[in-house]
Design goal:
128 residues, mainly alpha
Length: 128
């Protein structure tokens, strides 16, 4: 009797563990995340090209960072740092916020960055 009880006690956890599904790992950096980050990168690239073109024509920075500057490297490097911070915030938000109403807001820093760079690129190209 003791052998049967000992066998059941030792075998039962394995039997129950096989029936329970494994907890899925959260997928933070999935296709949706990389598409949004890619869109931000494209918008930043267009803004960089248009800013360089505008500065080479004699215009200067009138935006939020370094007003009056004519260094595209300085201006767009600072915006790259701001965008990297936005990507980090979006990644952490997507990874840790589980509220069904707040979770979709992980896209906000990326969409705001895309819109800002696209608007800046359009404004730079309108100068010509």
């Amino acid at each position: 009797m003791i052998r049967i009880l000992l066998f059941v006690m030792l075998a039962a956890p394995d039997a129950f563990a096989q029936d329970l599904p494994a907890k899925p790992e959260p997928r933070t950096a999935d296709a949706h995340f990389w598409i949004e980050v890619g869109g931000l990168g494209v918008a930043w690239g267009l803004d960089t090209i248009s800013t360089h073109d505008a500065f080479s024509c004699g215009y200067h920075e009138v935006g939020y960072l370094f007003p009056g500057s004519r260094s595209a490297r300085k201006v767009m490097g600072a915006w790259a740092a701001v965008d990297a911070g936005g990507v980090a915030i979006a990644y952490e938000w997507k990874r840790h916020v589980r509220n069904r109403w707040l979770h979709p807001l992980w896209r906000v820093p990326l969409v705001v960055g895309m819109e800002g760079h696209a608007s800046a690129a359009a404004g730079n190209w309108a100068l010509k």
